[in-house]
User: Which sequence fits this backbone?
């Protein structure tokens, strides 16, 4: 049987891997099979192109390249320079940014780079100035205490976790929660929307060094022009984490007040969510912060991953093509079709709908916790994740919400009709699931009851829905 280039590439790669550790080759093949069969609604996941995936599996992985393009701490980085410069150029052009730093390994890393750049730029710290000029051995214990004192009580204002903010915006389980004195802004309890007057009030009271905008579970656009005005009014640096919606910015669905790049002092992102690139992070900024951002490695990052930067260059080149704008628009159209379908069937949605790539269902309307709903949906072949809703009575572990998103299914080619069918399947499962009890008969937030015949039937329908939209149709491993 003759194969196209993609099939040949992946088949050959698996053959080479199988000769060394067949279980790894099997797991890679199984992962493709599982992804092909799942109705994947995880809002932060996507499917990178074969070109992007292949750009990561090569000898760039062998290279150390601390430093920046043309200024490395290792010899022989000329080819790494080529791919890093290309990725940065594509990022600048795509987002209209002055400076792009493409080394961060993840979103957390990108945020750490940004936090440190802002601290180093903004905080009047004689100890920091000294520490940056002198060798560590020349610093006294008193210098170190001063450094911690001077940097240690800086303030950050970000979106609260239950309103859809992210852990890395100053919350306890993340280092940012130890670095900063953090306060949160929530959403209006009646509408679920950001109340910009309340954000301005919180900023006036708290006087943060950094105002952070960005979310992982807020289903609406954010007006970054207003947020910048708020930041300016209190002298804060305005940072946007666009990890979730970078693809919508790249595809020019979010423009004007809703495009963070012209409004923020610094923008961070991951590259693997709606942007559909390899797993990684990135920072965009103006000239004021560029020097500090470029010190990300070794300040907070380990050695750059040149193979991932190569893949970032490929994915960003793809995102600059005209068809990416069409893809980005379809992500939002699909999310709205899914939201409408759920609403019509009686579901409660946080904010009553969506204008981005994600929908947050308040499953307490079905009498369930997020944990029960997530598992019942998974039993039925629908992959989602549970998420807190604003003022969630069930906390961050059990939650009362299910977050769903459309970047992945849109990549497969599903459209509005399939979103309505998906809404029907989800509603059927949620409607037919009831809370279970623990071994002692007491109500449980984790146990649930769902007739296995319903789960099986929905699973079959979910699989049928995917059949006309094969994942990676260009890759045949058999
Ligand atoms: N884990 C990502 C998400 O699912 O939103 C964000 O870090």
Assistant:
């Amino acid at each position: 049987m003759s194969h196209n280039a993609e099939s040949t590439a992946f088949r050959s790669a698996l053959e080479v891997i199988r000769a060394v550790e067949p279980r790894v080759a099997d797991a890679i093949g199984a992962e493709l099979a599982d992804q092909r069969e799942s109705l994947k609604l995880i809002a932060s996941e996507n499917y990178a192109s074969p070109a992007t995936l292949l750009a990561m599996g090569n000898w760039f992985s062998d290279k150390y390249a601390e430093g920046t393009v043309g200024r490395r701490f290792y010899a022989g980085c000329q080819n790494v320079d080529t791919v890093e410069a290309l990725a940065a150029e594509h990022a600048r052009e795509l987002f209209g940014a002055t400076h792009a730093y493409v080394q961060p390994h993840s979103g957390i890393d990108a945020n750490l780079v940004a936090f440190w750049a802002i601290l180093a730029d903004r905080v009047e710290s004689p100890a920091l100035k000294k520490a940056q000029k002198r060798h560590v051995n020349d610093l006294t214990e008193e210098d170190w205490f001063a450094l911690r004192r001077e940097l240690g009580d800086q303030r950050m204002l970000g979106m609260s976790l239950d309103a859809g903010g992210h852990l890395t915006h100053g919350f306890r389980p993340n280092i940012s929660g130890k670095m900063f004195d953090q306060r949160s802004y929530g959403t209006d309890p009646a509408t679920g929307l950001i109340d910009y007057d309340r954000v301005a009030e919180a900023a006036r009271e708290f006087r943060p060094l950094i105002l952070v905008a960005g979310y992982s579970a807020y289903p609406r656009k954010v007006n970054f022009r207003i947020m910048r005005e708020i930041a300016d009014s209190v002298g804060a640096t305005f940072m946007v984490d666009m990890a979730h919606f970078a693809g919508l910015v790249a595809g020019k669905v979010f423009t004007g007040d809703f495009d963070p790049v012209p409004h923020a002092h610094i923008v961070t992102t991951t590259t693997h969510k709606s942007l559909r690139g390899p797993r990684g992070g990135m920072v965009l900024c103006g000239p004021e912060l560029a020097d500090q951002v470029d010190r990300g490695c070794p300040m907070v990052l380990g050695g750059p991953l040149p193979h991932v930067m190569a893949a970032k260059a490929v994915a960003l080149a793809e995102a600059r093509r005209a068809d990416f704008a069409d893809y980005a628009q379809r992500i939002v159209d699909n999310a709205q079709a899914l939201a409408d379908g759920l609403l019509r069937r009686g579901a409660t949605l946080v904010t009553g709908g969506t204008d981005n790539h994600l929908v947050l269902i308040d499953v307490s309307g079905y009498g369930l916790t997020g944990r029960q709903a997530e598992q019942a949906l998974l039993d039925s072949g629908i992959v989602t994740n549970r998420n807190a809703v604003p003022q969630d009575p069930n906390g961050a572990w059990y939650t009362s919400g299910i977050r769903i998103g459309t970047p992945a299914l849109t990549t497969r080619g599903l459209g509005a009709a399939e979103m309505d069918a998906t809404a029907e399947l989800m509603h059927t499962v949620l409607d037919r699931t009831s809370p279970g009890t623990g071994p002692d008969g007491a109500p449980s937030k984790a146990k649930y009851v769902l007739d296995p015949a319903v789960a099986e039937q929905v699973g079959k329908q979910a699989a049928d829905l995917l059949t006309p939209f094969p994942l990676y149709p260009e890759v045949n491993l058999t």
Notes: Residues 59-319 form a domain with the Aspartate Aminotransferase; domain 2 fold (CATH 3.40.640.10). Residues 44, 107, 216 surround D-serine (CB under 6 Å).
